[in-house]
């Protein structure tokens, strides 16, 4: 069950978030209490770094996927095209210190320390659905903050129509970058209104703890209504642009992976159907589940694409 | 030789079931990872393709080693390719779609990579159906022609493999190379045989003509195989 918050309320307009959050906290605590011996909140390590991150808006009451399943099934081609090998290979990545370069159509460009970014942007937990273009899905309690809040601090100019994100390029550690599966570094992008949408998150943790390296530490994007490849990992650069950025998968196969990549069961991938998805963590007796348009976030985001032919802008 | 190979055959029948046993153990112990249905398809699909390659390898092995009597193995491996492909198909129908036929129809129509799986399975099914010795006898030359379709099945299975992936193409590439080499071997043998017959017939005819002239034989005997 998704608890829907009205789309026209921007997070910046929620005047007293603290009150809202403490209420959520209270509900959480009350539920836990009443459940007595119930397991702790999904995978939330009580000892994790973000164990007491407040629950943010848009967080859905969904059955969360086991942490182990999320942490050992990743598409991280910078390390390997094998979804479990990247768990081991990504351990070599050093995620601190970490900087993010901000450039382009922006008043406050510069190289920012991740620590400083985190100081300005308090984290919260949001349980989101995640749908991969390969027709599998999971439900993850991410820890992070709205991307829009962060971007506004850099003061984008009126020319900033798009935002481009770039992953670290370091073939010495990211051994997958030694092969030419993709044109490295990995690049993704969003239209500015998509980037500013309150659902869009910058993520630094999951399951109440830090993000494991293979899941994109120390800083990744989460755009829950788009296919997973849009949610770029290990971000080192953010560029505000007037024109649409060229993204890694679009460059590699323009007919298969579009810039928008909104989850849409009505538009099949050229080689496979998108109408259903395998849910991670099931057994061989769990049939596929129906895929929802915009991954179930249509009420919040469909208006962003009104008048657009989603078959053409896939 | 034939006796020893036949003795081995019953052991092979059991050994070829080990991948299935291994899969059952992994299912029982929940060892299939985060996406068990995909893992199931991968296991069964891979084994079907491997048996298909083994089946294709028998004739070249026979030609090179001059061993005889391996046709039984070709049949055995071929039937196992069919067996694992059938389980693979069953896995798709049951595990992915719980036999919801309308949804299966939509999924197949929207998934070109599955079209090639269906093509490969259709061929393998026909070949399995006509694999008994009596069928081979009754079909005569048609049998050979029909069973050459196995190459189309192998190529279709490999396209089916390539088309479901995004970027990790190393494994299907490996099978492509194997099938390419095995097919290449047949082409080579065929070309060589053609050249041989081209060279041999005139020489043979010359010898026969000479023999006739010298009165060694009355008439040129019919060419023998
Ligand atoms: C009606 C026929 C078939 C159907 C419906 C079918 C369906 C599938 C499906 C759903 C997958 C999993 C894709 C994923 O990862 O999501 C798959 C993978 C595969 N199939 Fe099939 N298949 C068929 C026939 C065959 C045949 C005849 C062969 C081999 C001779 C075969 C070999 C494979 C292989 C090798 C894989 C991939 C394994 C890997 O990723 O390592 N399939 N198939």
Automatic annotation (TrEMBL), chain A:
Q: How does it assemble?
A: Heterodimer of a catalytic subunit (MsrP) and a heme-binding subunit (MsrQ).
Q: What is its EC number?
A: 1.8.5.-
Q: In what way is this protein post-translationally modified?
A: Predicted to be exported by the Tat system. The position of the signal peptide cleavage has not been experimentally proven.
Give one GO molecular function term: oxidoreductase activity, acting on a sulfur group of donors, quinone or similar compound as acceptor
What's one GO BP annotation on this UniProt entry? Answer: protein repair
- This protein's gene is called msrP
The cofactor named in the record is: Mo-molybdopterin
Can you name this protein? Protein-methionine-sulfoxide reductase catalytic subunit MsrP
Q: Which organism is it from?
A: Methylobacter tundripaludum
For this chain's record, the cofactor binding note is: Binds 1 Mo-molybdopterin (Mo-MPT) cofactor per subunit.
Q: Which family does it belong to?
A: Belongs to the MsrP family.
What does the record give as the function of this protein?
Part of the MsrPQ system that repairs oxidized periplasmic proteins containing methionine sulfoxide residues (Met-O), using respiratory chain electrons. Thus protects these proteins from oxidative-stress damage caused by reactive species of oxygen and chlorine generated by the host defense mechanisms. MsrPQ is essential for the maintenance of envelope integrity under bleach stress, rescuing a wide series of structurally unrelated periplasmic proteins from methionine oxidation.
The residue ranges crossing the membrane are none
Where does this protein hold Mo-molybdopterin?
A: 77-78, 132, 167, 215, 220, 231-233
Automatic annotation (TrEMBL), chain B:
Q: Where are the transmembrane segments?
A: 12-29, 49-65, 77-94, 114-134, 146-163, 169-191
Provide one Gene Ontology cellular component: plasma membrane
A GO biological process this protein is involved in? protein repair
InterPro entries, alphabetically?
Answer: Fe3_Rdtase_TM_dom, MsrQ-like
Source organism's superkingdom? Bacteria
**Function, as annotated:** Part of the MsrPQ system that repairs oxidized periplasmic proteins containing methionine sulfoxide residues (Met-O), using respiratory chain electrons. Thus protects these proteins from oxidative-stress damage caused by reactive species of oxygen and chlorine generated by the host defense mechanisms. MsrPQ is essential for the maintenance of envelope integrity under bleach stress, rescuing a wide series of structurally unrelated periplasmic proteins from methionine oxidation.
Similarity comment? Belongs to the MsrQ family.
Q: What is this protein called?
A: Protein-methionine-sulfoxide reductase heme-binding subunit MsrQ
Q: How is the cofactor bound?
A: Binds 1 FMN per subunit. Binds 1 heme b (iron(II)-protoporphyrin IX) group per subunit.
Spell out the subcellular localization from the entry. Answer: Cell membrane; Membrane
Topology in the lipid bilayer is annotated as:
Multi-pass membrane protein
Name any cofactors this protein relies on. Answer: FMN; heme b
Q: How does this protein assemble?
A: Heterodimer of a catalytic subunit (MsrP) and a heme-binding subunit (MsrQ).
Q: Pfam families under this entry?
A: Ferric_reduct (PF01794)
